[in-house]
Amino acid sequence: MLSHRGTILDATALIDFRWLNEWEWLEKHYSHLYISQELLDSDNWEIDTRQTAYQYLTPLSLETEEMFASFIEFCLREPLLSIGDRSTLAIR
Predict the structure, then answer these.
(1) Beta strand spans in 3-90 (E)
(2) How far is residue 91's CA from residue 9's CA, in Å, rounded to a whole number?
(3) Which of 20-29, 42-51, 60-69 has the highest mean pLDDT?
Protein backbone atom coordinates (compact mmCIF):
# COMPACT_ATOMS: atom_id res chain seq x y z
CA MET A 1 0.00 0.00 0.00
CA LEU A 2 1.20 3.50 -0.76
CA SER A 3 1.89 5.82 2.14
CA HIS A 4 -0.15 9.00 1.98
CA ARG A 5 0.58 12.00 4.19
CA GLY A 6 -1.98 14.72 4.53
CA THR A 7 -5.59 15.18 5.55
CA ILE A 8 -8.69 13.26 4.50
CA LEU A 9 -11.75 15.50 4.30
CA ASP A 10 -15.23 14.22 4.97
CA ALA A 11 -18.42 15.46 3.32
CA THR A 12 -19.02 18.20 5.89
CA ALA A 13 -15.50 19.59 5.51
CA LEU A 14 -15.83 19.59 1.71
CA ILE A 15 -19.09 21.52 1.87
CA ASP A 16 -17.78 23.94 4.50
CA PHE A 17 -14.55 24.76 2.69
CA ARG A 18 -16.30 25.03 -0.65
CA TRP A 19 -18.58 27.75 0.75
CA LEU A 20 -15.83 29.42 2.79
CA ASN A 21 -13.51 29.27 -0.22
CA GLU A 22 -10.49 28.87 2.05
CA TRP A 23 -8.62 26.26 0.02
CA GLU A 24 -5.33 28.18 0.10
CA TRP A 25 -5.37 28.25 3.91
CA LEU A 26 -6.39 24.58 4.12
CA GLU A 27 -3.64 23.50 1.72
CA LYS A 28 -1.06 25.60 3.58
CA HIS A 29 -1.89 24.05 6.96
CA TYR A 30 -3.08 20.54 6.11
CA SER A 31 -1.66 19.62 2.73
CA HIS A 32 -1.89 17.17 0.94
CA LEU A 33 -5.69 16.98 0.81
CA TYR A 34 -7.60 13.76 0.14
CA ILE A 35 -11.20 12.58 -0.06
CA SER A 36 -12.69 9.12 -0.28
CA GLN A 37 -13.47 8.11 -3.87
CA GLU A 38 -16.52 6.29 -2.55
CA LEU A 39 -17.70 9.56 -0.97
CA LEU A 40 -17.43 11.32 -4.32
CA ASP A 41 -19.24 8.45 -6.04
CA SER A 42 -22.01 7.88 -3.51
CA ASP A 43 -23.38 11.26 -2.54
CA ASN A 44 -25.55 13.60 -4.55
CA TRP A 45 -23.21 16.53 -4.94
CA GLU A 46 -24.00 19.78 -6.63
CA ILE A 47 -21.96 20.16 -9.80
CA ASP A 48 -19.90 23.02 -8.34
CA THR A 49 -19.08 21.02 -5.19
CA ARG A 50 -18.00 17.97 -7.21
CA GLN A 51 -15.81 20.14 -9.47
CA THR A 52 -14.26 21.80 -6.43
CA ALA A 53 -13.51 18.40 -4.90
CA TYR A 54 -11.68 17.26 -8.01
CA GLN A 55 -9.82 20.57 -8.24
CA TYR A 56 -8.43 20.60 -4.68
CA LEU A 57 -8.62 17.02 -3.38
CA THR A 58 -7.02 13.73 -4.39
CA PRO A 59 -9.47 10.80 -4.33
CA LEU A 60 -8.43 7.73 -2.31
CA SER A 61 -10.04 4.33 -2.78
CA LEU A 62 -10.42 1.39 -0.44
CA GLU A 63 -7.24 -0.28 -1.66
CA THR A 64 -6.41 -2.92 0.92
CA GLU A 65 -8.18 -5.88 2.43
CA GLU A 66 -7.88 -4.22 5.84
CA MET A 67 -9.63 -1.06 4.61
CA PHE A 68 -12.41 -3.09 3.01
CA ALA A 69 -12.86 -5.18 6.18
CA SER A 70 -13.14 -1.97 8.23
CA PHE A 71 -15.69 -0.62 5.75
CA ILE A 72 -17.82 -3.79 6.14
CA GLU A 73 -17.49 -3.61 9.94
CA PHE A 74 -18.75 0.00 9.92
CA CYS A 75 -21.70 -1.13 7.76
CA LEU A 76 -22.70 -3.63 10.44
CA ARG A 77 -21.94 -1.51 13.52
CA GLU A 78 -23.23 1.85 12.27
CA PRO A 79 -25.87 1.22 9.58
CA LEU A 80 -27.03 4.85 9.61
CA LEU A 81 -23.65 6.15 8.42
CA SER A 82 -23.54 6.92 4.71
CA ILE A 83 -21.37 4.88 2.37
CA GLY A 84 -19.10 7.90 1.96
CA ASP A 85 -18.66 8.35 5.71
CA ARG A 86 -17.95 4.66 6.24
CA SER A 87 -15.32 4.66 3.50
CA THR A 88 -13.71 7.82 4.92
CA LEU A 89 -13.44 6.16 8.34
CA ALA A 90 -12.06 2.95 6.81
CA ILE A 91 -9.33 4.84 4.93
CA ARG A 92 -8.24 6.69 8.05
Answers:
(1) 7-9, 33-36, 58-60
(2) 11
(3) 20-29
